[in-house]
Amino acid sequence: MRSYFTMENYTGISLLDQKPLIVNQLTEAKVLLKQLEYHFDAAATSTTGKLLLPRILSSFESSLSMLKSETGHGESQMNGSMPTAANPNDSPRSICGSPRSNSNLIGENFSKKRKVLPTWTEQARACEHTGLEEPVEDGYSWRKYGQKDIFGAKHPRGYYRCTHKNAQGCQATKQIQRTDKDTSIFRVMYIGRHTCIQAAHLQPGQPRKIPEQRDAKRRKKSPETLINFEINRHVKTKDFGTTQEMLKSPSISIPCKEKDISTNNIFSSLTTDNYFMSSPISSPATSGSNSLVSPTRLNNLEGGQNFQTSEYDFCEFTSALPSALDSQALYLDWDWDSFDGFCF
DNA sequence: GCGATTTGACCTCC
DNA sequence: GGAGGTCAAATCGC
Questions:
Q1: Conformation bin of residue A72: beta by default, left when phi > 0, alpha when psi is -120 to 50
Q2: What is the spatial distance between Cα A324 and Cα A22, in angstroms, rounded to a whole number?
Q3: Beta strands in chain A (DSSP E)
Q4: Strand B lies under 7 A from the Cβ of residue A169
Q5: WRKY domain spans which residues (predicted)?
């Protein structure tokens, strides 16, 4: 199965419309990197890493200044590479694999029956030492409202909605499914942002709410619910019109293998919120020329190349951000089946 | 008793 | 008709 991450949606929204969102995302990523820098300095473990961080920050700053000074000339560029209603075949398959959800995103066919909500996917790995075989507690209260066997998948998908849906009208939902390839990894797709009170208390950088004992016991019953967060978060934003919501959204995902991270011990002191960065990246199969990370590079990754922690690649990734953003598209073609999971 | 989970039925979309 | 998503009654656990 191939999944795609989009930095843009396919409703014809221009980069100009998305610019505030992109700026917000980059700003958040910059802040997070500064946090990382702080922790990294505290650890004082690697000289090369110290040299790397300023470069990353510099790249983000460059991206931000380019975006802030940009006056919307990129719209036409975007139209040249974006799938359109007239050419629906250009539209990538949705991240959840549902052709129906795709139809909501395509131009004139936009369905008004269902609200298009920002969607992003995380991967969470169950942690052996916790004894839990369930996805991570993410700080929010979820209520399971369904479970479904998915065609072609070995494991059922659990459907969760915010506990405060009725009380506060919070529209956030999530779907959790154990991956076929590695049963210790869960794919968690979030749909919509929390608008409930608990969201206001879970700003990035703050510690997560500690699950109540009772809840933890309950979750243990369900194979879909808890995990120790050794995750990566990937963003697929379907609705960039909801700028306010996206202010709290993850921003940029910088993939790395957890074994490599543990080696460098860079992120060991970060909380999940601190490193909450995801990628608003996408990959229409037809967008090769705009690919920031080409399929070839990912194939190399799949073949074992240490793309994710290579300093060269990391720098290349961040250095490429400005040009990728300038070209209106940041695409990443991803193969879930060969994906071991991101972590920071 | 209350709230969460389970699970079969139903709905929506292709 | 098939697949994914949601509903809601039944069930469970505190």
A1: left
A2: 12
A3: 2-4, 119-125, 142-148, 157-162, 173-178, 185-191, 232-236, 291-293, 331-335
A4: no
A5: 131-194
β-pairing, A232-236 vs A142-148, is unpaired
Rounded CA-CA distance A256/A155 in Å is: 26
> Tell me: the pLDDT tens digits for A258-305?
333 333 333 333 333 333 333 333 333 333 333 333 333 333 333 333
In angstroms, the Cα distances linking A300 to A12, A13, A219, A305, A334 are 33, 33, 38, 5, 12
CA pair distance A176, A144, nearest whole angstrom: 10
Q: Which residues contact A17 (CB under 8 A, 6 or more apart)?
A: A240, A241
Query: Is the whole model's pTM more than 0.85, yes or no?
Result: no
The Å distance, CA of A175 to C1' of B1, is 30
Nucleotides on chain C within 7 angstroms of protein Cβ: 2-8, 13-14
CB of residue A117 closer than 7 A to nucleic acid strand C? no
A window 113-132: Cβ near strand B (< 7 A):
113-114
Distance, Å, A147 CA → B7 C1'? 8
CA end-to-end span of chain A: 24
Q: Give distance CA A120 / C1' C14 (Å).
A: 34
Could you tell me which residues come within 8 angstroms of residue A87 by beta carbon, excluding any fewer than 6 positions away?
A: none
* Residue A135: closest CA among A43, A213, A224: A224
Is residue A211's beta carbon less than 7 angstroms from any atom in nucleic acid strand B?
no
DSSP-based three-state secondary structure for A291: strand
The whole-angstrom separation of Cα A153 and Cα A66 is: 43
CA distance A112 to A270: 41
Instruction: Calculate mean pLDDT across residues A5-18.
Output: 40
Say how far A214 CA is from B5 C1', in Å. Answer: 14
In angstroms, how far is B5 C1' from A189 CA? Answer: 20
